[in-house]
Fold this sequence. Notes:
By secondary structure, the chain is an alpha+beta fold. The protein folds into 2 domains: 3-42, 3-Layer(aba) Sandwich (YefM-like fold); 45-74. The chain contains 5 helices and 3 strands. It has a 3-stranded mixed β-sheet with strand order 1-2-3. Helix 3 packs across helix 4 (56-70).
Amino acid sequence: MTIQTTTSSTLRNNMADIMKEINKKKSLMLITKKGEPISAIVDIDLIEDLLSLSSKKYLRGIKKARKDYKEGKIFTHEQVFGDL
């Protein structure tokens, strides 16, 4: 995992590029203000991994969803949303 840092000002001015970088590298971006970390932006796969470590129920749900997907137990866009 890559951990990068940026200032809140840089984040504000370059949000789209920073989000692409985080998703591409599956990384964590620490946001700093006056040199101190105040927040973080995390790739969704990483947050899923972190959640699974703290919640057995969440992990079971992810495993079931992946199994259902592999078995073709899915809904089409039309089944879920109909004719929008």
